[in-house]
Design goal:
There is one protein chain. This protein is α+β, with helices and mostly antiparallel strands and 231 residues long. The protein has two domains: 42 residues; 132 residues, Jelly Rolls, CATH 2.60.120.40. Helices cover 35% and strands 36% of the residues. This is Complement C1q-like protein 2. It holds the Pfam family C1q. One of its GO terms (cellular component) is extracellular region. It is found in: Secreted.
Length: 231
């Protein structure tokens, strides 16, 4: 009986088919584990690709929004460049050239008389750039808002009257000159004054006088002005 058990044990130990079955089982287990690992990696890669696609979409949207903002800013800057030079009430006169110079009499010589202050019309025109002084009315009319310089002179002689002159802006006196009547010891006098004024477009400036004022071919009594700069 012992011999039968021994032979059975040897037969069981030395059975090649049993060994092959065991190896096959182990192989299958190893292959299954490998396939599981591969699927896990593939799923991780798939998730990573999905995340990158989402991130790329967001970046694309941000770039598009930035491009639109740049275009809007460029249009705004271009608009500012066009409108920037317009800084006056009358933009067409921004670079205006304005100047005039006149004397009282166009011809001859003599005194002009008036007891009360009245408009003095300078009829002889040396310069009238822009034609903003009128030798018909005696008014200078500002074409543009800006700062202007004015000067006027008067000559006193051959009269028993004194002389008073004033520069007026919109009929409001601004600056004066004046002198007593001439005497044998002081037979003639020259008077002058000047002023810098800020004017709006349409403001008028003129000279008023009372008494007697002389002019001749030497052009002793004058009224001049020019634009210093526009505002």
């Amino acid at each position: 009986m012992f011999c039968d058990l021994h032979r059975a044990h040897e037969h069981s130990t030395n059975d090649p088919e049993s060994d092959e079955d065991l190896d096959e089982t182990r192989t299958k287990d190893g292959t299954g584990e490998l396939q599981s690992d591969i699927w896990d990696e593939l799923r991780s890669l798939r998730d990573l690709v999905v995340e990158q696609r989402v991130e790329l979409k967001h970046l694309t949207e941000r770039v598009t929004a930035a491009d639109r903002l740049v275009e809007a800013l460029q249009e705004e800057i271009a608009g500012d460049d066009v409108s920037a030079p317009i800084k006056t009430d009358a933009p067409e006169f921004t670079h205006a050239k304005v100047a005039f110079s006149t004397s009282l009499l166009a011809t001859g010589e003599g005194n002009t008389f008036n007891q009360d202050f009245t408009q003095l019309i300078f009829k002889n025109v040396f310069t009238n750039t822009g034609n903003h002084y009128s030798p018909i009315t005696g008014y200078f009319t500002a074409p543009v808002r800006g700062v202007y310089y004015f000067r006027f002179t008067g000559h006193l002689t051959l009269t028993e009257n004194g002389l008073r002159m004033r520069l007026v802006k919109n009929e409001h006196p601004m600056v004066f000159i004046g002198d007593r009547p001439p005497t044998s010891a002081d037979s003639e006098d020259n008077l002058s004054n000047g002023v810098v004024l800020q004017l709006d477009a349409g403001d008028v400036v003129s000279i008023q006088f009372s008494g007697a004022v002389w002019d001749d071919h030497y052009h002793r009594t004058t009224f001049s002005g020019f634009l210093l700069f526009a505002l």
